[in-house]
Amino acid sequence: MLNLNELEKGLPAITPAFGKSLAEAGGVCLESQGHTQGQQIKIKGDFSNEYSLLWPAVTSQALRCWNDPEVATEHGAVAIAVLLAKKEIGFSVIERSRKGTGFDYWLGEESDFPFENKARLEISGIRKGNEHSIRARIQRKKRQTDQSDGVLRAFIIVVEFSRPVAELRKK
After folding, report:
1. Which residues pair with 43 in a beta bridge?
2. Which domain holds residue 135?
């Protein structure tokens, strides 16, 4: 199970307040595509799995807050991707990357202190797409991470909300 509500506890690179916001965006994206609590998400690419999804109740206020589909999709994809990184890769987001690096988060083990970066994570979301749009986005994100190659391995996660599906690729 991927319970977006767990993000309210926070992660090393995500405060509880931001985690709650991410979970809310994820719920808005899922419900905008007609999904209900318990919806299955298929994981494909270099990993293969399936999870039931749970998210916070979507209120009319949340819909007004997340009225920009692009922003909601971006944040909703982060909600799902950071939980998938923990479950599938075994790493947590430990620090947000800076703009211009070609990726979104540093991954590592939560038990490491001080934190040691183990991998890079690039995340993207598609509200409603097809196989071609997912593959094209994966390729674009792989190229985007080229600028930081040689540092550590990279993972790319593209979340598509209409089915829903998440493609997780190692680079």
Report:
1. 49, 166
2. 2-170
